[in-house]
Amino acid sequence: MGWSNVRIYESTTALNDTIADCRQCHIGAGHDNPTNGDPMILRMQELEAPHTHWFSSSTPGGIALLGDFHAAHGTSEDYGPIPAALIDQSDPDQMAAFITAAGFGDQPNAFPSAEIEQEVDSVAPLQPACNVPMGWSTSWSTIFQQGATGAAIAAPYHDVKITDPDKLVQMTDAYTAWRTGAVATLTDDIREVLLDSALPDMGFEPEAGLDGQALLVQECQQCHNTRLDPTITRDRFLVDDLDQMSRDEKDLAIARIQTANDTRLTMPPPLFRLPNDADRAAMIAELQK
What we know:
By secondary structure, this protein is mainly α. Helices cover 35% and strands 0% of the residues. α1 crosses α6 and α9 packs antiparallel against α10 (277-287).
């Protein structure tokens, strides 16, 4: 089938002590200790229609996303195991109904899609088809801060699209040329389409002006907090219990922050967080106290 990469995610495996851990997002309002039988929850932060970041042929955002998808993939290319004919039949309402029926209708740090989309539209009326200039939502800011201060998992981005329009056109053209056989090799990294100015609001880059402690909270606490599984080594580094951390553990954290971005040991993991050199220096200074 031409697979080049497979990632396996399970609820309770050796992966729990890696960045592939599911439980740091799929935790409810309580604690997460698998040995005590603490349950995981099904996650759908955008449970409320119009389900901002989901494909749908019945919502403006979903239609805009489907348009970008088909510009690159056409209408006859399967997407992984999903047949091409089923792409446009995506219905987030059915997923929301399933999540609710399973008993998870009360989502921690839920994303109120309708309210946020209305506020975004009021300041950026070209949304969602055109996402530059960026939108803004006061309601979104509230749930974003819950994630940024370590009280909950991160909030999804306020706008429907996370892409830079120019980058998206470039990578769409590159992929289309490869898909149609016009070029033999795909040389561009077609994942490089994110809107740089939106990276802080997406949670990849920290907010500007944070001190070292606030940076550790925003960059590290989602995975390193006292609510998560205490039986794994990750629990030795707890941002919300920093004053109790040993000197050796702080020094290890410093070493991981200083590790080059091309290793699996880098912290914060570049797959999720992208602090700059000044941010890293501030976090290190806080850990050196």
